[in-house]
Structures are given as C-alpha cells and as structure tokens.
Amino acid sequence: MTDASSLRMQPVLVGGTGRSGSTIVGDLLDHHPDLTLTRPMEVRFITGHEGFAEALHIHLVDGRRRGRKASRTAVDRLTNRWYRRTETVGLHQSVTPEQLATWSQHYLDAVDAEPLAATQLLVHRIMNTIADRLGAARWVDTTPANARLADYVELIYPDSKVIVVTRDGRDVAASFVSQSFGPNDVFEALALWETRMLRSHQAIAASRPDRILVLPLLDLVVADRGGSLQTVCDFIGVPVAPEMVDWFDQNVSPEQMHPGRWRSQFDAQVTARVDEQYSAACGRLIGHGVPIPA
Fold this sequence. Notes:
single chain; alpha/beta; 2 domains; 5 strands
C-alpha cells in the first residue's frame, strides 16, 4: 500500500484556459474518498503568473541574475497576493506568517546554488501543511495555469498527474465576459483562449506523456459522462467511487454547461464576428498541431 507521504508527491493538477471546466473536475474529484481538493481550491503560488514554477524555469534557463529576481517576485506574490486573498480564501488558513517567513527566507538563501532543491523544499512544505490541515492523503489543485505550466511543474512534482480540461473557445469567451474577472470583451477573451491553448499544447508536448490527460468538457458533461469519468479515474489510478457518481448526477447536468451559449448571448452581428475570429484562431492552432475541442 502506498503511504501518505508518497501519495502527497502524486498530486492531481487540473487546469485549462480559464472558464473551461477545471472547477467542475476539481469538485468531482473532491468527492472521491481518496482525493481532497485543496483549500483554497486554487493555490496559485506554484503555477500562477510569476509563481515558483516559473521562477524555477527562469533559474534553469536564464541563469542566476534573472532567476534571483524571479524568485524574489515569487516570494512577494506568495506573502502578499496569494497568502490572504479574502478572509476565508488563502494560504493563511493553513500556514502561519512565521512559517511562511522562515520558509521563504530559507528558499531565498538557497535558490541561487540549488534552484530545484530550494523550490521543491518550499513548495512541499507549504502543500504538506495544507494537506495536514485537510487530512488529505492525496491532494487536487485547480489553478488554471496548471495546464500551461505542466512541463515546469514536472520538476517540482515528477509524479504529478495533470488533467487539461478543454472547451469550445467561443463558450469560454462568452463565459469570461459574464464574470467580474478576466477580459470583458468577447474578442479579447477569444484571443486569450487561443494564446492559452497554444501554450498548454507546448507544455503537454514538453511533459512526460503518462502525466497528462486532455479532457474535453463536452465529453465529460454531455457526450460520454460514464466513459469520461472512468477515463479520469483510470488515469489517476483510483476506482470510480459511488460518491463521485452521485455528486456528478445531482449537480452537473448537460443543460448547465450551456453548450453553444455564445450564439444566444450576443446579437447576430457580434455572433458572426465571433464565429469568424474563432475560425481563424482554430486555423492557426491547427497549424501548430493543437487539437481543437469539438
């Protein structure tokens, strides 16, 4: 039997372009008795913008001077932006300021000489502390950038599994503009979807193949619910649990996914422009070998 410390080195990292369904997948996995969704459900400091996976990559590719600057930026974002996002959301629920200050200083003291070891130590300390608080044997994180940095995070967690959730870019764009975060212009949102799809494809290509599962949201929610659920569990190495199936059936319906919502969300002129821009984006992505969600 795999012990708890070993399982914690095999996290499940769910990601996508944003508004692609990673939250649904995270909640679904959280209802498996052997898996626990992190709190916050997006820890962000590992793969988020200017986080520790990115800083590690800069150390290894661009050298000590740029790496040192990236490390300091990552620590600043960790201790400020990501530590206490709201009163109830943030790393502060699990890690004390004293722990974070001590661990961050250890990281900065060691990262120039041993960037990989220093990054692993800091990230593992924080994530193990979160797992301890939650009583988690194996944890799941849904930071969207997990998809785009799947290759970078492989160094930190070589035995991690990454689920990349994909969705029609027009529905992603329509979903973004209805939120209080992200682009509020549908054409900007489409451009962002294209950029993130390309980077995710590059990250997948640079990762060990057995670590990555590309999961179309349409298959999971509409076209092949049972088969997709089995595929996800087989990929992670756990049996399908009745608790997962019950939660999925009761809380995620095909109608809730709103496939094709972009057609009814905008007027005919905007819809035509969205379709035209999406067609062009898909052509460019296909030219790079990127599979397009149905």
